[in-house]
Amino acid sequence: TTTTTTTVTTDSATAASIMQPTPISTHARIARSELVSVSLGDRHAAFATTSGSLLICGNNTEGAVDPLQRQTPSIALPMHLESILALTPRILQVACGFDHTAVITETRAV
After folding, report:
1. What is the pLDDT of residue 18?
2. For the stretch 74-105, what's the b/e string if a residue is b when 16 or more beta carbons lie within 10 angstroms of its beta carbon?
3. Which 8-state DSSP code applies to residue 8?
4. Does pTM top 0.90 for this prediction?
5. SS3 22
6. CA torsion angle for 18, 19, 23, 24 (degrees, to 10)?
């Protein structure tokens, strides 16, 4: 049996900079919305608002952002997900997986 050990050496300044939160600019659609739930998938993000709508953006190759718009591989800016909003009552919570998105509605449907 052979055992291999790898050691990674990082100076304290580099380690400290990696651990610091980095502010990013917020898109206007998110800035104007009061959020109740935020979730990040592998390559997409979703935001549920107090009004019950869903903002979503990111990689859409597997339909994680909008399953009805798979011909659009990437949605760079948060958009209101109209295809799901027409079918569901208010959205209370959102959860993103690796390449899917799930919501809980006010009727407790998933």
Report:
1. 53
2. ebeebbebeebeeebebbbebbbeebebebbb
3. -
4. no
5. coil
6. 50
Cβ burial, residue 6 (10 Å; 0-12/13-18/19+): exposed
Q: Based on C-alpha coordinates, what's the Rg of the chain?
A: 18
Average pLDDT over residues 87-97: 84
Q: What is the pLDDT of residues 15-64, one digit of tens each?
A: 555 555 555 555 666 667 788 999 999 888 999 988 888 888 888 888 78
**Dist. CA 34–CA 47, nearest whole Å:** 10
Q: How far is CA 1 from the centre of its chain?
A: 43
